[in-house]
Input
Amino acid sequence: LVPEVVGLLNRLAEDYRVVLATNATSRLPSDLEALGLLHYFHAIANSSRLGVAKPDPAYFQAALQLADVSPEDALFIDDSLENVSSASRLKTMPACVASRCSRRNS
Output
């Protein structure tokens, strides 16, 4: 686990509804529980349960329903430009591409 990500999840979960949007398998909730991460998420929008996957716009609509928010009150972050482009087409839903940057030792 990346400590910075766990720290970010911890801070976000205190004040925001954090929904994990993923094209994962049905084992994901048990995997997250085993890693001690399940409690950070208010909901999981898992394509294996929803029957539709990113980047299908119906997937993002389902994720918004799980989060119980409108597109303008959500932020979608993904490492795929295709997924971000699809999500950003939903009315005013902001979306951005995130990448993991490595630290250089000087």
